[in-house]
Amino acid sequence: MSRALKPWMVTVASVLAILAVWLGLTQTGAVNDLFMPGPAELWAALTDLLRDGYKSRTLLEHISDSMMRVLFGFGLGALVGTLLGLAMGYVPVIDAVSAPFIEFLRPLPQLAYLVLLIIWLGIGEASKITLLFLTALPVSAVAARDGVRNVSATRIQAAQSLGASPWQIFRHVVFPSALAEIFTGARLAIGFVYGTLIAAEIIAGSSGIGWMIVDAGRFLRSDYVFVGIFIIGLMGIALDRLLLLIERRAVHWAGK
After folding, report:
1. How do residues 150-170 score in pLDDT, each as one tens digit?
2. C-alpha span between 188 and 12 (Å, rounded)
3. What is the CA radius of gyration of the chain?
4. In contact, 84 and 141? CB cutoff 8 Å
5. Which of 2, 24, 183, 249 is most enclosed, with most CB atoms within 10 A?
6. Is the pLDDT of residue 135 over 90?
7. What is the DSSP secondary structure assignment for residue 170, as one 8-state letter?
8. 106 and 14 in one domain?
9. What is the count of structural domains for the chain?
10. From CA 216, how far away is CA 223, in angstroms rounded?
């Protein structure tokens, strides 16, 4: 890439190109508004949702419901998964006991056991948050376990030669060295959680952005559907950037 051409310039140019194609298709009538609303229609839909809400709930309430589910489910799953993964990587016995369950749960489609969670816990928040918890847990556990296993043996041996105890080695060598992979696992986990959230709201929800999109689609309100999709995308980007910011502050030595 030319030095005069900065990465942000390419990003802005690509976004503007997509906007130009979108405007061209909608303004010329090449695509029916039912299939792809134009910017004016989306702005009007967003204004309506902000003013009147959707199905007796404000747009902010739908957004907050989705975010609450993500933060609780992801937060608990990532915390428990990371602690379990660290123990699995550091204590072989714990790994031998936990690995079969983690490896079974990790590739299992989340919707496969959503029905069971609904039967056990009902269609309230408990089933959705538990589903998101189980989605984040195995991804975080595997990332933390692999982070511990990939710690340089030289670092551990150096700490041992200086008389460090096992706890000191874990606290000052193993855990900091594994942080980069732990955050990578967290970013992957929140992506899975976010995708699972929409499916959970569709199947067992009566609020949230995912539910609003599906319900609006039943009435052919594609403008509301597109607004919901944009909100979901922006929420996902915001969550990922927040994790990336925390990672840069917590693992500031990475790559150095």
Report:
1. 988 888 888 888 888 888 888
2. 26
3. 23
4. yes
5. 183
6. yes
7. I
8. no
9. 2
10. 9
Q: Does any domain span residue 100?
A: yes
| DSSP 8-state secondary structure symbol assigned to residue 232 | H
Does one domain contain both 123 and 209? Answer: yes
Looking at residue 215, its amino acid is D
Buried b (16+ CB within 10 A) or exposed e, 72-102: bbbbbbbeebbebbbbbbbeeebbeebeeeb
User: Do 8 and 77 belong to one domain?
Assistant: no
Q: Tokens 């942080």, residue?
A: 179
Residues 56 and 19 in one domain: no
- Give 43-74 pLDDT, tens digit per residue: 999 999 999 999 889 999 999 999 999 999 99
Query: From CA 31, how far away is CA 123, in angstroms rounded?
Result: 38
Task: Tell me the H-state helices in 28-174.
Answer: 39-52, 59-90, 92-105, 114-121, 125-149, 153-161, 166-169
Within this chain, do residues 66 and 155 fall inside the same structural domain, yes or no? yes
Asked if 147 and 211 sit in the same domain, the reply is: yes
Q: What are phi and psi of 118, to 5 degrees?
A: -65, -40
**CB contact set of 29 (below 8 Å; sequence gap of 6+):** none
Neighbouring CB atoms inside 10 A of 38's CB total 17
**Whole domain around residue 180: which residue ranges?**
38-250
